[in-house]
Target: Tetratricopeptide (TPR) repeat protein
Amino acid sequence: MTLEEARATLGIPAEETSEEAVKRLAEARERLAEMVRMAPTEKLGDQFQAELVSFDKALAALREDAERRRQEKMAGMMALVPGAVTGTVVKSKREGFLDEPSPPKVVKSQTISSPVSATVPTPPRAAEEEETFSESHGAAVVPSSEVDEDAVAEREVVKSGSGGRFFAWAFLFLVIGGAGGGWLYFKQEEQRRLEVTRDMLTLERLGANLVANRRWEEATQVYLRMEELVPESEQARVGRASIEAGRREEQEQFVGYWSGASQAAFEAGRLDEALEAADKVLERYPEDAEVHALKGQIVAARREAVRSQLSTQVRAAVEKKDWEAAEAGVAELANRVPEDEMISVLAKEIAAGREQARIDHERAKELANSARLRDAGKFDPLVLEWMREAVALAPDDAEIRELYDRVASYTRTIHVPGEVATLGDALKGARAKDRIVLAAGTFEAGVVIDLPVELEGAGLEETVLESHATDAPTLTFGPGATGTVIRGLSFRSTGFDVAELRFPGVQVRGGEVEFSGCAFRDASGNGLEVIDGGLAKASKCLFENNGWDGFAARGKGSRMEALECRSMGNFAHGFEIWDGASARILKSVARENTRNGILVDSVADDLEVVGNQLRGNREYGLLLNAGAAGKVADNACRGNQLGGLLVRFAAMSVIVEGNTIENNEGSGLILEQGLRADTYESNQLRSNEGRNLNDNVRFTAGN
Model:
């Protein structure tokens, strides 16, 4: 590119010199290079880079012109040296002054006449040498007799002048050589700079593309190469900064996405999914403190979920007296959650369950022996009652079951569907004290029983009575059903009713009915309901997934009795006593109900709640809203969300003692304002997340 083309390309005004333009355009060149780096698209970046190459070519032409002008200034200084500019050869009076030195010349001295001196002739050999020396140096040989002192002096001056010219020529040589070498050096340097510039541009563009594609390691290598070409390069520094910024942005995006996914899964209870998402973050960014904390919460929740699941399985096995399954569950818990305190708790429950089963079996054998001694081969209500209790205590003892079947056969027995098709048909022809036996299977019910009968199924998981939730309870017992005994049946409602008043699964209205080994499930209302002064006794029964309470007694004179029952997963309370009803609840379990394990809201004076396990309910394990008299003792309230045991002022007459209240998510024992804390000192309070004892509490109206 010519100088004129370069000046036109760069738009340099006529009055500005090349040297001035080079200095001014250096910053413009950096701005253009920045445009190449920051181009939003590859096509635009290529266009900017082509312009930058043209810019650099024009700038190189300017630099060359500036260098030429600098050399011209130097030449003006060199003009002071003869021949330095014109190139004319200045001849020395002594040619060959750089040749090897010649042998010394013998010069005759002028002889001064003296009276005592005589002229000594020059030897022939010396004369020849003198002639040879003279010829070799281009000077005439002067006889010594003709030598003039002035001539000798002149020759000495010529010698002195020849030495000065030597140094002048040497200086001239160095200046010209230095100027030429300098010009060549600057030319090579300019070429090297252009090559470095081109390489830097190429690397800069490559680095930008690698950064844009998040290929951080490759981009880092590119900027390291740029620093090798140009140490402390600004472009390399900016590139490295862009890598760090990109990595931070990538980390923020990656961590934000996967930690958010982990948090969402954690809150939704999908713990395995939550843990997997958290591990994705920590695998790439192991120092992230927030995700470490989140993972800790997930691991703790998984631990608690495993703990809760296995604890539930173990307790269910204990309730079924499946000791092998219960012990296997404890072993798995010890393996998955080592050193958890629940391991020893469950082990104690298994040991206590085994001991109770042994005691129950011994008692069943005693009852069976008494029945054998009294059996006279005819119906005897006392013998039949003993054998019913014996079967309930030891349902798996074949010998006891055989004796029961024999004494039960003394009464009239109606088989469904062997003799009649339905339960309704059997009841139509039944008399008081008749025995109705239902085979395994599901039967439509929705019937009313108003006479004392014995209703027996093949087992609570084998024989099912059901009715639609909007039609009627599965069974309704009237006042005339007093003395009725129900064993081995499951009651279930189909469909669901959302009305304010809903049918229970089974209802006892004024009569006295005993249930043994039965299940009450999926009712829209209460599982088993006692009203109108009735009495329902339940032993070893299950109340599960009912729309209101599992087992409820309502109204003055109504009473519930529950022995070794389980009430769990109900939409309201496990057990509820209210509006004047009374209750006796012993050795039962109320767990994981939506509201309270047991709610007492009645002024009846014969309350007895003793030896129950109340755990995992969403409100309180036991809530005493009211009570005229009675006892709440030796119950265990654990892991309930709002608190363990709440006593309102209206229940101040109820004795509350010897209860274990621990590990609840709220406070342990909550006492309303006006109750004395020292009255409740016999209760054991420990390890509750809220206060162990929260007394002097004021409740607002409606709470």
Remarks:
- Confidence is low (pLDDT under 50) at residues 89-100, 105-147.
- The first strand starts at residue 413 and ends at 416.
- Residues 149-212 form the longest helix (64 residues).
